[in-house]
Specification:
The complex is a heterodimer of chains A (about 500) and B (about 350).
Chain A lengths: L1 H18 L4 H6 L2 H22 L6 H13 L17 H12 L16 E2 L3 E2 L3 H23 L8 H14 L8 E4 L10 E4 L1 H23 L4 H21 L26 H8 L12 H24 L2 H11 L1 H6 L4 H27 L9 H14 L4 H30 L19 H15 L8 H9 L12
Parallel strand pairs in A: 3-4
Antiparallel strand pairs in A: 1-2
Chain B lengths: L9 H26 L1 H32 L6 H19 L8 H31 L8 H22 L4 E2 L8 E5 L2 E4 H23 L1 H11 L1 H6 L4 H27 L1 E2 L3 H16 L4 H20 L10 H15 L14
Chain lengths: ~500, ~350
């Protein structure tokens, strides 16, 4: 059925091109670069036409289109300087530069920067607070990518690591444990607060390590299970953790307040560099004192963390450990026969993924200033899984794309789309009215994500930007029989 | 197993640890029973009611797992939609409310039961056709991921249909006592749950063990290729299994709606996980095992929420159920009665 749909679309497409005088053999004979340029040009033109037709035209849209073309069309990969292939850093470096510069152009706090282009239907480009969320979730998605993408273990309880990271930040950078006072490099915090106040940079590392330990504890007994059982067990852990958080204000009837129950831990100290560095290097002593510019600092810091994650991802993937993960993913029996210690390797994948989930969770808690048990539902695990699957399991760039796009949809995109739909087809005063009650699109967010999961798995299981290796696995098939079988 | 596993101290520590846990459980139950026998038995009846409900849903998991080795994640949400179907049927179509005559009540409930079972069966078979069948040859995690996606889609269908709040079903079950002996009471509303569940379970057992179609199901579960060579239409058999599983979920839905009186879009998710745990506990793929596991989980839940001596309470029910799941998978992955995945449902 889906193959028939696919072939039907392809046939229609080539029939259309044939009308224009371009048949398939002729297209295949063109040089690769030309084909890529033509494709990019077509897509950019379609995008520009949509922007123009959507009634949100700005001249800066042309600049953005030009930037996209310059980035996509030439193949920079071949550029070498003295034998070093520095060309492959050009596009990521350029994207990074754009991201760094973005805060100067972004819309702040709900007010839209009039000079910036808007997308049709989607509305204005993302705001700074959304950008921070995108960076943090990119980190989490890359962390999950270690487990799902590299090692091929389905983890449905990633939210447990996020929660663990957030609560570590809550314990060591707030007034939660009020009867003890311990300041450890706590910087830029109002003096005189009770409780533990550790420096956020220390807390990030502590959160990562604590979460990795939790990952190992969860992994050791369960990683022997076969894939779908493992998924359910991780889901169980993902449900237990928030329940502990919710009931942790009176743990086991002892009156010990670990998590402050449903009230959550708040406020959590914001990040900062402290007065000494602030005075000498002009880095912000405390991000919140920056006022409306604080989101910029939060974003840039998150960007640094994301870069570290990307670096680790790329280096680990090509390391002995990473190759072992991929070998296990492709064929567990063959990997074991080649002498890869299955349990240890899988546990490392788990611990690494958990580490980044913890760091991201701690940073996000410090950004939002709170850790609430209600923000750690199963939905979030699926949300992060959806990012990894949509972008392309195992491919760093795909996962980054998936994370940014879905987090944008979550924070702003769906609300904007809903507003657009309601003004055009709903009771928003148009003459083309289909429904009469305003449609609450964000309410259906997770159904939309579920639809994304189903459609991606049915039509493009390797994701939008796949790694060629993963794509081959999905299309040619791999030996999917586990070696350690729970039922054996 | 192709390689020899290193025997470690875990081989001796793990069973000892498991026995210790079971011993603690037994001691806890015994002390609670000694403190108030009549109350204990009353609570046990709640457990029986819960267990009967879980059995209906757990059987759906176990049927599908037995034949496809797929955790049908959307099953809990099919159950939830079953509850919504029956809420609509009971209230809007059969117009039931407290105080209608017994004949009308029985007729309405049976009618709603049939409609909910048929609707959920068709829904489940449709899901299999759209989301699982195209992925027969794909890596094993692919259909699991689509199952998760389907589960979220079904939840949003429920939100769109009934809104994000609770859908109330007025309490139409009679409140009288079946019997009341020595302080032990057993009310009709609990008895009716068992009364609906039992015939459905017997029907299912008869269907799987005595009919031709049931034989085909068992054959397909055992070896799909060989079954196809023997002339069994494998795809139709799998569709039929999903139909049956969906029907059971629909029956569970009406039982839930009647007994608890309210249902919401996320009811199916949490209850589905509990039911799945029950299926694993009994040995997945094993039909009597699923019923046994469901009863055990139902009793544990009722005791946890009802008893008084050193009881964690309802705040921890979910954690306890998942801990059982994890412990079972670690200590005895084949479940209480043994897993029968390839050997027949």
């Amino acid at each position: 059925m889906r193959r028939r749909i696919g072939t039907a679309i392809a046939q229609a497409w080539w029939a259309f091109l044939g009308l224009l005088g371009l048949d398939r053999p002729r297209w295949q004979r063109l040089p690769r670069r030309t084909r890529r340029a033509v494709k990019a040009l077509v897509w950019v033109t379609i995008g520009l036409l949509l922007v123009w037709g959507g009634g949100v035209w700005q001249w800066s849209a042309l600049a953005i289109a030009a930037v996209v073309l310059v980035l996509v069309v030439p193949s920079y990969d071949r550029i070498t300087i003295r034998g070093r292939r520095i060309g492959r850093f050009i596009v990521p470096g350029f994207v990074l530069a754009l991201a760094i510069a973005y805060p100067y152009y972004a819309s702040l706090n709900g007010s839209v920067n009039p000079g910036m282009p808007q997308l049709p239907i989607f509305g204005p480009l993302p705001q700074m607070s959304t950008m921070v969320g995108m960076a943090v979730f990119t980190m989490m998605a890359l962390g999950l990518n270690f487990v799902v993408g590299y090692a091929g273990l389905l983890d449905l309880g990633y939210v447990a690591f996020y929660a663990m990271g957030s609560y570590t930040a809550g314990w060591f950078a707030s007034s939660q444990f009020g009867h003890q006072n311990l300041y450890l490099g706590a910087i830029g915090v109002t003096p005189g607060l009770t409780g533990f106040h550790f420096s956020i940079w220390l807390v990030l590392i502590m959160a990562g390590i604590a979460t990795a330990v939790i990952g190992v504890i969860i992994g050791l007994p369960t990683l022997r299970l076969r894939g779908d059982y493992l998924a359910i067990v991780t889901l169980g852990f993902g449900e237990i953790m928030p329940q502990i958080a919710r009931n942790g204000d009176n743990l086991f009837g002892t009156g010990f307040n670990l998590t402050n129950g449903t009230g959550g831990i708040t406020p959590i100290d914001p990040p900062g560099f402290g007065n000494w560095i602030g005075h000498h290097l002009h880095l912000p002593a405390n991000y919140l004192t920056l006022g409306t510019n604080s989101d910029r600092a939060f974003f840039w810091t998150a960007l640094v963390l994301v870069l570290l994650t990307i670096f680790t991802s790329a280096r680990l993937r090509d390391s002995r450990l990473g190759r072992a993960w991929i070998a296990i993913r492709e064929d567990e029996v063959a990997a074991a026969a080649m002498g890869i210690p299955l349990m240890r390797t899988k546990t490392w994948a788990y611990a690494t993924g958990a580490f980044f989930g913890g760091v991201a969770g701690a940073y996000y808690a410090s950004y939002t200033g709170a850790a609430f048990p209600d923000s750690f539902f199963f939905n979030i695990s699926v949300f992060i899984l959806c990012m990894v699957i949509l972008g392309g399991m195992g491919n760093i760039w795909g996962v980054i794309f998936g994370a940014c796009f879905l987090e944008y949809l979550d924070k702003e995109g769906l609300a904007n789309i809903g507003a657009w739909l309601n003004t055009h087809f709903g009771p928003g005063g148009s003459n083309f009215q289909i429904w009469h009650k305003p449609l609450d699109v964000p309410l259906y967010e997770f159904g939309i994500f579920g639809l994304i999961l189903v459609i991606v798995m049915l039509f493009r299981p390797e994701g939008l930007i796949p790694s060629s290796r993963r794509a081959a696995e999905f299309h040619e098939g791999v030996h999917d029989q586990p070696l350690y079988d729970a039922a054996a | 197993m192709p390689i020899r596993l290193r025997r470690s101290y875990l081989t001796y520590v793990m069973p000892a640890l498991a026995s210790l846990l079971v011993l603690l459980l037994v001691v806890w139950l015994a002390v609670n029973f000694w403190k108030g026998p009549a109350y204990f038995v009353t609570i046990a009846f709640i457990g029986l009611t819960n267990g009967a409900l879980y059995a209906l849903v757990a059987l759906g998991y176990t049927l599908v797992y037995g034949i496809l080795e797929l955790i049908n994640f959307a099953h809990g949400d099919v159950f939830m939609l079953g509850g919504m179907f029956s809420a609509t049927m009971l209230l809007s179509v059969f117009n039931l409310h407290a105080g209608v005559s017994t004949g009308q009540l029985v007729g309405g409930i049976v009618g709603s039961l049939i409609v909910a079972m048929v609707a959920c069966g068709l829904l489940n078979a449709g899901i299999e056709r759209v989301a699982y069948r195209p992925l027969r040859g794909a890596p094993r995690l692919a259909p699991l991921i689509t199952a998760i996606g389907m589960s979220f889609i079904l939840e949003d269908i429920a939100i769109g249909w009934k809104g994000p709040g609770y859908t109330a079903v007025p309490n139409i079950l009679p409140k009288g006592r079946v019997f009341s002996v020595a302080g032990i009471t057993y009310t009709w509303e609990k008895f009716i749950v068992v009364l609906i569940t039992l015939p459905v379970l017997l029907l299912l057992l008869w269907l799987v063990q005595k009919t031709r179609q049931g034989k085909a199901m068992r054959a397909t579960a055992q070896d799909r290729d060989a079954a196809a060579m023997m002339g069994i239409n494998v795809n139709r058999t799998i569709s039929f299994t999903f139909l049956i599983a969906g029907g059971l979920a629909g029956a569970g839905g009406i039982v839930y709606a009647l007994y608890f009186g309210q249902i919401r879009y996320d009811t199916g998710f949490s209850l589905g996980l509990i039911a799945f745990t029950a299926a694993v506990l009994g040995g997945i793929g094993n039909l009597p095992g699923a019923v046994l596991g469901a009863l055990v989980i139902g009793f544990i839940q009722a005791f946890n929420e009802g008893l008084t001596w050193h009881t964690p309470g309802s705040d921890w029910t979910q954690s306890i159920v998942f801990s059982i799941l994890i412990l079972i998978l670690v200590f005895r992955p084949q479940g209480l009665l043994g897993e029968r995945t390839p050997e027949g449902a």
